[in-house]
Amino acid sequence: MRFIASVAEEEIYTGLKADPNFAALDKELVGSPLSLMVTHTLRPTAGGMAAGLLSAVLAGSTLGLIPMVSSERLVIKYDVMLNGRPLTSYTFERTATRAQNLWTVEAGGLGKAGMEWVKSTVPEAAAKIAKDPAVLALRQEMDFYFPPNAVAASH
Q: pTM, whole model, 2 decimals?
């Protein structure tokens, strides 16, 4: 299974590879019909947009003495794709409010707490994908056409 991620690629990859169900996961498996794509979106919440604008004006007018406050919704999505079409998908969401100094704001950054949360989704996503009926049916079909013992014996 090919692995692609838009955020925390190494951390998520390492976490998934630790699970026996994802031992064959590979970032370099170009052309594989089966892939796991992890994507993220980071959007300001409705209240966060108003608070962010006000705090940005205040932070700018005080030359950064007052921190900028942002409230964002972080969404991590794990998609299992078969021949480019969705087989199954799992989404994890979190809303977080952060106060940052005007001069150290990360453009599109998740921050330390956000990155820790992203990494914490890996075990739950791995467990859900491994038990997903569509994935189990695909695994059964692959084992029928390509028995694991025959593959191991050919090496």
A: 0.76
